[in-house]
């Protein structure tokens, strides 16, 4: 028997040692026993971080949907695979069984085929959290099309950039979406985006909010009639282990978003194995991850990881505040959720509403509480532990990234003793390293440095779509022979890791990664703006929020600053989405610069964070006088 399910701390240490001493042997054993392969691999791993190139299970053939669906039908056909909870609590939840999921995915896959989608084609999915989203992801995988899900809160410009970057042929969307009491005109956003996407040949539209929408003839079609006519069987395409499964965009500190490419076999093995252990999932448990499938958390831990394990995965369409801030707990009670996985920003927002809203509900089904996306502060950790978990459900603070595909550092609940704000121990097979400023590895405990990973794991992203050079520069150039995460971390006296945050110009707002450069580009589009710099500052709910310093062109006319602020945020909303709006905008006569003209963000960051005690020596700046002006007018 392989070590697929770890049940206590000694076992963790023993399996961890095994996975590090002989990674290939270890992963081969896991892969052998728990997955459906059409052909076994010739070689478990080949890798070279200097190229960089990583290949797992080369030579193997499989289809991930056979692992997610087909192989469960004999034993779990009538078990709920996806439990859909609609935005409106009065609308009935849908229990989509594995049998039903099989039919829906196969029908959808046949529709894609009829529409001319072939293996390797890219399909952009811009859908709200409705069953069609999960089904379409799996339908793409069924026929070997590469899905590129774009979070349906992104603007039309952000959508078109992503569609064009990976040359998507088709877009899947809906007539609109529900978001609490509001509806959003998704199809309108798609229409606008497609004005600049000549490569998109067809748009399939799911009906959700039943509004009148514009259908472009020859391009757009309603999905349901096509599904009604499609066959319930579609042979799964035989995929090579290293064939791309999906592209998912993430923000970089500069430049356009990076289309991270994940491949098939390694991603499947690692997401399944982490899901089983980090959530200690057992047959008949109901598992709920509140993320959107538009992010990696939803890909790995709403769709693939749970379904490969034959789990019941809740998919929630709505928001935590609708119809009131008790909604999450109402859902936990209603569906007797056993594992609950959410983000610190949600926990902080709910904590603000007081414990009464939690106490109204019976949360006794909960066994494991998860946290992901940003560092969880001590207060939020304790609130979660005391009020939601009643000190009975361990909190798994899971650190990972879009690029890592799966959870990298996390406690194993009921095994690893937790410690507030610590993601604790590396997961099986993960070899972290902390690096100092000189590029040397800090080998002791009680050190702080930049977090790298020394050895490949099965679900590492293989490249950036269309730009391998950027992949190499971003992740493999800072430290020789290591994957650099972009995060800082410290290791305590027993070897537990605490992630301290990004060390680059990525800011995490409400758990969403935002690069400052594209937001600055948007701000600079305003005709009155000369220059801008954006930094993060602490926010009690969002974790971090955005602070913009803006200098204006001297146009001779005076402008109302509040109107300008609104206009700037409107441009950001249009070019990226509302998540990137600036909380504070300070107008200033200049930005502090070095003599070579580089904006000194470090100083701006400290001022925005109201931490001006040690700004350092500003006298060498090109324009030291603006520092005082900025400090005097800080918001
Ligand atoms: O800075 C880390 C932070 O989120 C970044 C990755 O963001 P993204 O690719 O959007 O993936 C988020 C979901 C996996 C990381 O570089 N981060 C993620 N999880 C944690 C975290 N920071 C601290 N603690 C975490 N548990």
Automatic annotation (TrEMBL):
According to the entry, every stretch annotated as the AMP-dependent synthetase/ligase domain falls at 70-462
Origin species: Algibacter pectinivorans
| Protein's name according to its UniProt entry | Acetate--CoA ligase
Q: Acetyl-coenzyme A synthetase N-terminal domain location, by residue?
A: 12-68
Annotated GO biological process: acetyl-CoA biosynthetic process from acetate
Would I find Ligase among this entry's keywords? yes
- Protein's UniProt keywords contain Cell membrane: no
Q: What is its EC number?
A: 6.2.1.1
Molecular-function GO terms, alphabetical: acetate-CoA ligase activity; AMP binding; ATP binding
Every AMP-binding enzyme C-terminal domain range: 519-598
What PROSITE patterns is this protein classified in? Answer: AMP_BINDING
Q: Which domain of life is it from?
A: Bacteria
